[in-house]
């Protein structure tokens, strides 16, 4: 049976890109931060199942909650970078992007006492508009792999023509895309997040099994700590579309994750893809 990569994007509910029009970045410090308790629950769940994972962590979070980083590393998981301030790569200049990813890497490595090899762009925001210079910046900053180019068509992200499985996006950088299934002449998301909450569990399970058996590939699954947090503060004034995407089936998420961990084999990104 294939070993799949379990990944967690460590950010809090108020840092979600879809909330950016409603929550000013300057107000983040005043918001109730719930990432500590949610990461503790995730670590406990992974420990019960004997699973190791990769945590793509914001530098902003690590700076304010260093114990979270130490708990992740202390439990044998891979610490990777989600950038510093959850700014979309395709909305930054090349210089600002390099600064963001370099600062995040420095903060994480100082806290962990270990190399940070991987990076995932907020909202999978490396695409055709910035792929060349973004990947060059990642190499310059010392990253060895990225999981930032989602080969799907979506209103907020995606590069549907990109390869579906790991490839050298740069001579010194491996791109490990989130998992998709090819059907009806297009790529369909099969890698977690809101799709995992929206679709019946049986559908998600079948898609991952398809990638393992039919494609012969390891899947890359992701979720966020806030997705298991039923009691997170509700954001007023958001659009119906944003409300649905963010809150749909949150009350089912933790139970579904437990089933997923039982139904497949899971591991860290670096162990699966850099060891090949």
Keyword list:
single chain, 276 residues, alpha/beta, TIM Barrel, four-stranded mixed β-sheet, globular
General description of the model:
With 276 residues, this protein is of the alpha/beta class. The chain has one domain (3-274): TIM Barrel (Alpha-Beta Barrel), CATH 3.20.20. Helix content is 38%, strand content 15%. The protein is built from ten helices and eleven strands. The chain has helices at residues 35-49, 59-64, 66-74, 94-112, 131-141, 194-198, 201-213, 240-247, 250-263, 269-274, and strands at residues 3-10, 54-57, 78-81, 118-119, 145-146, 167-170, 173-175, 180-183, 186-189, 220-223, 265-267. The strands form three sheets. Strands 1, 2, 3, 10 and 11 form a five-stranded parallel β-sheet that branches. A four-stranded mixed β-sheet has the order 4-5-7-6. Strands 8-9 form a two-stranded antiparallel ribbon. Strand 4, helix 5 (131-141) and strand 5 (145-146) form a beta-alpha-beta unit. Helix 4 runs parallel beside helix 5. It is globular and about 45 Å long. The model has no long low-confidence stretch (mean pLDDT 95).
